Amino acid sequence: MVMSEEPAERPDPVDPDLIARPDVRAFLAARDISALYRVLSEHGWSQRRIAKATRTQQPEISEIVKGRKVIGYDVLVRIAEGLGIPRERMGLSFGAYADELTTAEPPKGVDEDVLRRHFEHLLALGAVATFGTQIERIGELAPGLAASGGPVDLPSRTGTVDVVPGSAGTLSTCASWHAPTAGRPGPP
């Protein structure tokens, strides 16, 4: 997309009630700019007005309305900012809620050192579950875990965040979970 000259005056932002509509929220979450522009057109926004707000040439807006995909991060940010749409509605801002973050305090009566040891134990257990054996320096955090190389009870659920892309043996490890292990079934 080619940026036009910085306009002297920007059009008003999109009506917040329009942005809050479930269908528009879905378009924004999917970054379906074509659908967004069509909704804006239905609500009185001309292509020229959209172009001025987003610092884009009008022919580019026309191409997008006809279905051209917008995938460039910087272009999506410019569209969101130009139309007054919160960036997080389009998944463009990982820091949007930074002012809402809180830190957890340990429960009353629980020593932080106990929590640290529990975390270390879980970390070591995760390493054993992932690699099937203790890992140097991590295994030292919880001695005795699967030292014999025996079966390890794994969590009942794992997700894509639990698997390192490209890790050797991941598929064979996952497949082995469904095979009987030492006379007992592996995790589901």
Question: What can be said about the biggest beta sheet?
Answer: none
Which class best fits the helix and strand makeup?
Answer: mainly alpha
What oligomeric state do these chains adopt? single chain
The count of DSSP E runs of length 2 or more, i.e. the number of strands, is 0
**Name given to the CATH architecture of the largest domain:** Orthogonal Bundle
Shape annotation: elongated
Share of β-strand residues: under 5%
- Low-pLDDT parts are 4-8, 166-188
User: How many separate structural domains?
Assistant: 2
- Tell me the series of helices and strands, N- to C-terminal: HHHHHHHH
- Structural Rg: 26 Å
CATH topology of the largest domain: 434 Repressor (Amino-terminal Domain)
Helix residue percentage: 40-55%
Q: Compute the separation of the termini in Å.
A: 49 Å
Report the total helices.
Answer: 8
CATH class of the largest domain: Mainly Alpha
Average pLDDT over all residues: 74
